[in-house]
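User: Before I run my own analysis I want an independent prediction to cross-check against. Here's the chain; please return only the structure tokens and, at the end, one sentence I can use as a sanity check.
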Amino acid sequence: MSGVQVGLGRLAENPALVRGRRVALLCNQAAVTEQLEPAWELLPRLGAQLVRIFAPEHGLFGLAQDMEAVGSESFAGVPVVSLYGQSPESLHPAPEALADLEALVVDLPDIGCRYYTFAATMAYCLGACQQAGVEVIVCDRPNPLGGELLEGGPVEEGYRSFVSELPVPVRHGMTLGELSLLLQRERYPNAAVTVLTCQGWQRHQWWDETGLPWVAPSPNMPTLATATVYPGACLVEATNLSEGRGTTRPFLLTGAPWLDGQALARRLNALELPGVRFRFTMFRPEFQKYAGQVCSGVEWHVTHRLGFRPLACGLVVLREIRKLHPEHFAWRSEPYEFVADVPAIDLLTGSPQARLVVEGKLSLEEVISGWETYSREFELLRRPFLLA
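Assistant: Structure tokens:
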């Protein structure tokens, strides 16, 4: 039995919040209680009238890959409305989908990284519910990476997108419930927000210290180890390198058919980056980039997660690959999360700085110094919204 109770479990103890009300759910298959009861079964059991389910990127059961449009459907007789379709407009719930609701229950398993899109989906729903006069009930759950460590800079003017929607660092150390309260004050002051907090969680705790079962929140987030490197390894998406999608170790692998993985591992390990080592390996993705091709590359091995700085590490990895293979390394040229005129790396990191670091035009130390200043400011800004 877990020593931590998630917000959904607390809802089960406070059924009056939903009993007899017309409600919708914003969730996916990872929205479960400590006993693994899914939210869409719990709400009707508590006496709620479940009108519809809103599903984030990847769909209700995480069947779709990244940036893959998902259509609306039904499950167990309940309409499922996709909030990730073929256009930016599809990311927002339509007014008619909220018009017959009294409350929207939100339980999205975030992983503590700004570009993990579930928090942005919640933000859009907060705005829509404010307009519609619908109460939002956020069932909170722990931040898998703990609630203390921050890393990354702000989103600069002109770089806001679905992967840079929130006014927080890349690694923000907040829960979804805490983010909802911050967004309420910063953007949606007339939204009616109720947060069911986690019980028993302490900010220093990572997911594997809570006793809660890990349920993959998206198809390429199978383990806590994946989530640990994601704030840095996700930057590989913005390049012509494979980030390990199509393998059993997404984001833990970085490589390409043209890459000298042995040389890369030697270079990276010689830098003695804090809390991480790199092992030369070969892998063959079954889908996505370089599907069916053997890639040479490295596997990330986190040796000390409290000292590990994934975002800075990700920039160093890309910078060293570009030095090794200037003739092959390239930034992603296709549109990224519905944006075609801004480089994906700039959208992810919220400014051109990371790209300039990788290209050798800006000092990483200078950028990190700016991140640290912003983190100190954000630490004070977020304090009123912390729930543990």
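Sanity check: The mean pLDDT is 97.
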